[in-house]
Amino acid sequence: MSEKVTIQISKELYEKARQYIEKVGGFNTVEEFVEFVLNEILTEEEQTAMTKEDEELVKQRLRSLGYL
């Protein structure tokens, strides 16, 4: 198990998350839910992040195809 740290969020946001997991299920705690959401967002960001070099290659390809 990886080491944990404490993050503070507003009580209002905590309550919204708690109500959400009570309604939808799938999580035992708000902490599990928050960790899942953060992981999903950060993983998605890593997968969709494009380097400047990648962006330039796409632009060159689009130019060669006549789109730019």
| Counted beta strands | 0
Largest sheet: none
- Overall number of domains: 1
C-alpha Rg (nearest Å): 20 Å
Query: Could you give the distance between the termini?
Result: 49 Å
The average pLDDT is 86
Q: Can you describe what's shown?
A:
With 68 residues, this protein is an all-alpha fold. The chain has one domain (11-64). Helices cover 68% and strands 0% of the residues. The chain contains three helices and no strands. The model has no long low-confidence stretch (mean pLDDT 86).
Short description:
The chain is 68% helix and 0% strand.
List the helices and strands and how they pair.
Elements: H1 11-24, H2 30-48, H3 52-64
